[in-house]
Amino acid sequence: AGLPSTEEGQPDAPDASSGTRPFKMYLAPMVRCSTTPLRTLALHYGADACYTEEMIDRSILDSERIERSVEVRDADGRRREYGVVDYVRSVTSMSARQAKRAAAEGSPVLLRIVPELERGRLVYQIGSGDDVLAARAALKVYRDVSGININMGCPKKFSTSGGMGAALLSDPQRAFAIVRSVRAALPPDVPVSAKIRLLRDTAATVDFVRGLVEAGANMIAVHARTAGMRETEDALWERVRPVLDAVRSYGGGAVEAVYNGDLYTREDMVRAVEVCGADAVMLARPALYNTSIFRPVGEAVPKHQVVRDYLGECVKWQTHHKNTKYVIGEMMNNRRAPSSRKIHLPQVYPGGQTMGRLCACHSIADLCKLWDVRMTEDRWTRLLDARPRPTTEHRYDDAYFLAPKGGEGVQPPGTAERAPTVSSKRQRIEGAADDR
Asked: Which of 394, 286, 336, 395 shows the shortest CA–CA distance to 53?
């Protein structure tokens, strides 16, 4: 296990003056979480690059690319426009019922990119078990991103059942063929990478990364767990060094070696660089616990303020409230954190926010009210009048947090604990204050 967090429970922010050799910090690809607002927030705090959530090859191939303008306001209330690139589900790929709903509400946005903020710092992760489809998917999006990553680490059934994710670890030749195909399809200046897990032993893992390098991978991220391990088990730090050394050796020093797994503090990141030999670190759950862990200097931002900042990004990029609530729910629970870490990851908020009150929210306005995100009257009015953008094709269910399978659930909020849902526009309007 890694070192514990600070006594206050906040992750230590990276300090560029620590004397450790320079390393980069990446936001990991997380399904439902690594969407536009979390990525832009991570970049704001100091992440060097962010990965999209896994996008299945056929989904992106069945999408339409649309360029739009989005009007946002900064903290001082000044208006400005950002150009965004949306990949939306094509009506031609929908059933009659889905097409009818899309005509009324709009097509689901699979991926929203903000070039002005993410150019040169966004990596698109493909979920694929087919070399031809993977190459086609990469060709469709590569001009809008700075790199392509192949998911070879997700152990969840929705990924492995399609021969994707961690299923590729047990089918090396198919994994290598996918990397080879994507590499051949793209211009040489577009990096191709893979995110993997440890295999049954060190020798097998080293052989696997050798095949990836020979197939053309420019970067390999290693999650320090095997596919069969639970998230609550500590990462296997001791097994990573020979694997990352092999990445550099087989790549002649030109292939980036990235460590992923249980990096909750600055000391953990330094350890990954110095002990495990990483060139960069990739953060998933720790970045959800407190996204300001990416700050290059100074103390971490208090957790409740991070949630407020995240909500500000969701309002800015017009994120659907269901996705917003899901991500905040992940920020507020530790059930997928290693058991040895949970005592160091407090979930106490000065405003009395709880999982029950969060799940009682049914709009972005409700969420902003719960977290006391204050806005000008004009912005509140615009937020309340705006029709929610269609959510992605993910399904969201409060029971995931209120009654999680295999663990103790959280009781739905009682009358005294209900979220501050607002019954009328007049009640929802805040007085003039800082516009987030």
From this structure: 394
Instruction: Extract the tokens encoding 149.
Output: 């990553």
CA 391 to chain centre: 16
Q: Each residue of 163-209: pLDDT tens digit?
A: 999 999 999 999 999 999 999 999 999 999 999 999 999 999 999 99
Tokens in use for 188? 């040489």
Which one from 154, 314, 361, 368 is the annotated catalytic residue? 154
Q: Is 359 a catalytic residue?
A: no
Q: Please give the Cα distance from 55 to 325 (Å, whole number).
A: 21
| CA dihedral sign of residues 419, 420, 423, 428 | negative
The sign of the dihedral angle between the CA atoms of 5, 8, 12, 13 is positive
pTM above the 0.90 mark?
no
Q: Tell me the average pLDDT across 142-147.
A: 98
- Where on the phi/psi map is residue 219: left (φ > 0), alpha (ψ -120 to 50), or beta? beta
133-142 pLDDT, tens digit each: 999 999 999 9
Task: Identify whether the C-beta of residue 203 lies closer than 8 Å to the C-beta of residue 189.
Answer: no
- Per residue in 47-83, pLDDT (tens digit) is 999 999 999 999 999 999 999 999 887 656 678 899 9
